[in-house]
Amino acid sequence: MATDRSFGHSVFLGESAASGAAPRRWPALAAGLLWLAAGLSLGYWALQVLGRSPLTPVSTTAQLPEAPEPAALARVLGATPQVAAVTAPVAPPPLSSRYQLVGVVADGGDGGAALIAIDGQPPKPYRVGATLEGDVVLRTVQRRSVRLAPPGNAQPFELSLPEAPGGRS
């Protein structure tokens, strides 16, 4: 009587009559694939951790180099320096050009006030006898003009209101 090798518990030990040694390959192949997947996963995460550069804030901008001084650049490129022509000193503008009369409140007597802008600044009110910038004194106020006296013996000057549109005063 011949014994069948496929009968009994020997099939569970990996001995099969039909496939020979094939059942022993599947567990080894599955274990190899699992170890390959574990190694690839470990390599991926190692590259993720070690391959990162330090974070750079988005708001960081590159600094632009300073522009060279034009005279120095011209000298380097071979330009010869030009001597500025000596001009005659220009007389300063008249003192009256600094002041602009904006409004007048004339009093019948020696009183009154004027609204005067100095050097394009907002106008300020001044009474007769008040000192403006530069020691200029408001001497008199008339219906459409004022008289200012500069310091020292300088000639007094007069400021007038601009003509109203339509010729009315």
| Number of DSSP helical runs | 2
Instruction: Give a quick account of the main beta sheet: strands, pairing sense, barrel closure.
Output: 3 strands, antiparallel
Strand content: 15-25%
Physical arrangement of strands within the biggest beta sheet: 1-2-3
What is the straight-line distance between the termini? 146 Å
Number of strands: 6
Give Rg in angstroms: 51 Å
Give the overall pLDDT as a whole number: 77
- The percent range for helix content is 10-25%
Low-confidence stretches: none
Q: How would the global form be characterised?
A: elongated
Helix-strand topology string: HHEEEEEE
Class computed from helices, strands and strand pairing:
alpha+beta
Pfam families: T2SSC
Region (Disordered): 149-169
Domain Type II secretion system protein GspC N-terminal: 88-152
Protein name: General secretion pathway protein C
